[in-house]
């Protein structure tokens, strides 16, 4: 089968960069070429396709409908090329598998189990790095662990590992004199929340038939880990994923007298679409085993 001749890679790169910046000058700066070189590449691309890809818009440019259609493809293709080349380069260098996850999950669940990972998967060299759960996968990260809710994005492969379970946790001395406290006893206790999960308390209250408006958190924290540290020093009741407080519950530093509920979210492993690194599947299988009750 004869393959249709494609435009030059340089022309497509010039178009893609201009489509992202909507400025030929900015594109030229990013590509380390002159404004004229970018303009010529785009003009040659338009001549070869027989289409206009950009229109003038003030000091910049804007995409025509045909340009917008091509930009959707070039963005995806160049992203995949960068990810694949980066993966091949690191595999050739015998680089470790880079896993990103939130700092709280990293500190409270993953690091305490690194010895288990090394024992169960001795050939898997892992590098852990803290990332924001909302942060897109960037070059240099092979996979990311996230608590997330479907539907999943089309440009990512998402492996569901375990359901999220959340519940209130507090220091034992906050419940002195209450051997079997009812959920509504939370109304007399200071509540803590994290700004990244404002829906946690309302979701838990709804499950127990409580009025979430009657349970207003008195202190908020930017990160879940800070909230849990506040709970450990007795500042109030935190609402947290069960996975992150397992060790605290086991040692008795925290109590979960009202248990945990499953939410619609899942703990998931996110990979670039089409990633073929066998280490990702090995890691996913290990995570499923260690996260299971």
TrEMBL record:
A Pfam family recorded for this sequence: HTH_1
Domain of life: Bacteria
UniProt feature coiled coil, ranges: none
HTH lysR-type domain location: 7-64
The UniProt record lists the keyword Protein transport: no
Signal sequence coordinates: none
Annotated keywords: DNA-binding, Transcription, Transcription regulation
PANTHER family: HTH-TYPE TRANSCRIPTIONAL REGULATOR, HTH-TYPE TRANSCRIPTIONAL REGULATOR TRPI
Family named by the database record: Belongs to the LysR transcriptional regulatory family.
Protein name from the UniProt record: LysR family transcriptional regulator
Source species: Marinobacterium weihaiense
């Amino acid at each position: 089968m004869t393959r249709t001749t494609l435009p030059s890679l340089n022309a497509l790169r010039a178009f893609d960069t201009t489509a992202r910046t909507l400025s030929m000058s900015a594109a030229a700066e990013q590509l380390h070429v002159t404004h004229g070189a970018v303009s010529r590449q785009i003009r040659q691309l338009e001549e070869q396709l027989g289409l206009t890809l950009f229109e003038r818009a003030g000091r910049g440019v804007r995409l025509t409908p045909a340009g917008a259609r091509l930009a959707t493809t070039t963005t995806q293709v160049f992203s995949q090329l960068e990810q694949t080349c980066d993966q091949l380069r690191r595999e050739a260098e015998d680089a470790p598998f880079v896993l990103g996850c939130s700092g709280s999950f990293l500190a409270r669940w993953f690091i305490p189990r690194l010895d288990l990972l090394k024992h169960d998967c001795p050939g898997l060299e892992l590098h852990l790095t803290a990332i924001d759960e909302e942060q897109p996968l960037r070059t240099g990260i092979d996979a990311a662990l996230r608590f997330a809710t479907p539907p999943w994005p089309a440009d990512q492969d998402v492996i569901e590992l375990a359901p999220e379970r959340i519940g209130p946790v507090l220091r034992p001395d906050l419940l002195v004199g209450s051997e079997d406290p009812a959920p509504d006893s939370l109304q007399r206790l200071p509540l803590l929340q994290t700004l990244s999960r404002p829906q946690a308390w309302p979701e838990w209250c709804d499950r127990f038939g409580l009025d979430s408006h009657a349970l207003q958190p008195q202190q908020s924290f930017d990160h879940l880990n800070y909230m849990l540290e506040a709970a450990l020093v007795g500042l109030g009741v935190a609402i947290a994923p069960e996975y992150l407080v397992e060790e605290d519950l086991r040692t008795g530093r925290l109590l979960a007298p009202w248990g945990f509920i499953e939410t619609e979210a899942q703990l998931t492993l996110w990979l670039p679409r089409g990633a073929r690194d066998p280490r990702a599947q090995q890691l996913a299988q290990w995570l499923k085993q260690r996260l299971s009750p």
